[in-house]
Amino acid sequence: MTSPRTDFRAGVRVALPILLGIVPFGMVAGVAAVNAGIPPVGAVAMSVVIFAGASQLAAAELVGRNAPAVVVVFTVLVINLRMMMYSASIAPYFQRESTRWKGALAYLLTDQAYAVSLLRFENDESVSRRWYYLGVGSALWVTWQLATVVGIALGASVPDGWRLEFAVPLVFLAVLVPAVTDRATGVAALVGGSVGVAATGLPFNLGLITAAVVGIAAGLLAEEVA
């Protein structure tokens, strides 16, 4: 038997391993904001409003370089375009939710919340999707905000030997590996990753979008051929 409470707790539990990487990732984002000259209050506000690690790091870097506001906003929007694909993919599972709930769930949408929730929804029709997703998303949100605040408080005093930035790719690898379940997803991951590395030098972080589109196309082609 499932219930909102048990499904919420299940969502929190599945997020726990991911939180191990979220903590240093959030600290990196907080430190980057402070080092870019963003006031602590502004850095916290940016974390709450954007709630997207890669975008926050890019925004902090651009602010530190005195880039125009329009460039900062455009860059954040481009990096977060992948959320449109996530939304289109997971939206059918929330068709019966009210507009208010859809708005709240959309705010909590992240790479990690999308990946682990979609895996559960595809394999368990009895789960309360709203509450399971809220469990995952809330655990990620609270941990991220706290870790960011810690990074903001520590600022430049974080020793370089801690190598916190190493946690950034680990967080995404922790989400990627369980999602590769067949030939199509394997091809998508391999091709997308390769294109992402090759397209690193593209302006405005367009390499990420390019890699995502090419990876998806490769996965679809592999599924058709299989």
Task: Kindly describe this structure.
By secondary structure, the chain is mainly α. It has two domains: 4-158, no CATH class; 180-226. The chain is built from eleven helices and no strands. It has helices spanning 4-35, 40-50, 53-64, 69-79, 82-90, 99-107, 111-123, 129-154, 167-179, 183-198, 206-225. α1 packs parallel to α3 and α3 (53-64) packs antiparallel against α4 (69-79). The radius of gyration is 18 Å and the shape is globular. The model has no long low-confidence stretch (mean pLDDT 85). It is found in: Cell membrane. It comes from Halorussus gelatinilyticus. It is a multi-pass membrane protein.
Helix count equals 11
Distance between the termini: 38 Å
Share of helix among residues?
A: over 70%
Number of domains: 2
Gross geometry: globular
Residue-averaged pLDDT, rounded? 85
Biggest β-sheet: count, sense, barrel? none
User: Unreliable stretches, pLDDT < 50, 5 or more residues?
Assistant: none
Indicate the structural class: mainly alpha
What fraction of residues sit in β-strands? under 5%
What is the N-to-C order of secondary-structure elements (H for helix, E for strand)? HHHHHHHHHHH
- What is the rounded Rg? 18 Å
Task: Tally the beta strands.
Answer: 0
Summed up:
It is found in: Cell membrane. With 226 residues, this protein is mainly alpha-helical.
Structure keywords:
226 residues; mainly alpha; 2 domains; 11 helices; globular
Itemize the secondary structure elements and their pairings.
Elements: H1 4-35, H2 40-50, H3 53-64, H4 69-79, H5 82-90, H6 99-107, H7 111-123, H8 129-154, H9 167-179, H10 183-198, H11 206-225
Helix pairs in contact: 1-2, 1-3, 1-7, 1-8, 1-9, 2-8, 3-4, 7-8, 7-9, 10-11
